Amino acid sequence: MRKKIAVLPGDGIGKEVIQGAIDVLQTVGRYYHHEFEFQYGAIGGEAIDQFESPLPKETIDLCRQSDAVLLGAVGGPKWDRNEAHLRPEKGLLAIRKELDLFANLRPVQSYSSLQETSPFKGDHLEGVDFLIVRELTGGLYFGKPSERLRDNGEEAVVDTLFYKRKEMERIIDTAFQLAKKRNKKVTSVDKANVLQSSKLWRDVAEEVATKYPDVELEHMLVDNAAMQLIAKPQQFDVIVTENMFGDILSDEAAMLSGSLGMLPSASLSSNGLHLYEPAHGSAPDIAGKQIANPIAMILSAAMMLRHSFQLDEEAGAIEKAVKHVLEAGKRTKDLTYQNRFVRTNEMVEEIKEALADDFAILNIMEAYA
Ligand code: NAD
Question: What is the pTM of this model?
């Protein structure tokens, strides 16, 4: 298989972790005879410095000519005081709009090997394995008006939560399709006791559910969902929710995996060009120190193999290699209280070695089959 991948490293640790994902993909390509061609584009702060735009046209064109997009992270103090249109995060919102990336998928899993650094006791996280499906192109982050204003001479502010029924339908439908391939349960999270938008969301969820009689639908208010994620995370299979609720709940859920550095994500479009990025940001506090955890980015690359290229076996091989390395006790700084930890590139090397070992075992088994 030959595939073109647009690589947008972005800022801070984005640059460090994306190199790890490329190394791992090249290793997988060698073992499984795939050719991945990587072409680089600018986004975020780096793009502001080079092109005076957080998402230059060159980058959009590059993405459109590719089979999938890998993104690191954007942002940093250097650009914090910029005007709104020259902020790195604008690049993120813009690429979601440009590529029509409407569904953000964040799988959340607990790793028993990371128990010692988990804030949760004993076997509280045993068997946690769910998927958050967050709407990405509507809601409060995009609604207009969104501005500071004066109301009867007093300083005031307005943000707008706007959704079209179709936008709700397609994200909820995506969640049902994904649940069909998992444990057949969708938890739709809203605030229907207060918000009009949530009342429509709930109606739409009920309607979509009629198309999937083998999938169970439950509704949960977002405040309760925030509590249930911590109290009994095993109850969830697929959670579907609007943009801002999903933003907050998915960061909360990151702690169930042990660290923000463990959480991958995929952003799907309806035209087949999808984007993959870690759930974390550019972490300016640790950027340049080679101590970032590259696993979220590497697992995002595995999601790309599965969702964009239908390479399930190869994606599974990466996920297995990550598990092996963690079980062997290898930890980046965010995963340990000890002073001994592996650096970003050492973690990548460990994962590549685990891939090589697994591949060798697979070959021996095939030879004897
Ligand atoms: P962050 O995710 O960058 O960092 C939060 C904390 O987690 C920090 O202490 C950081 O050191 C740690 N962390 C994050 N990823 C890690 C990793 N892979 N390994 C080890 N530790 C890791 O969030 P923040 O500090 O709120 O934001 C920093 C910048 O990133 C801001 O400019 C923000 O706007 C931007 N941001 C970008 C994205 C994105 O590009 N998708 C997402 C969130 C925040």
Answer: 0.91
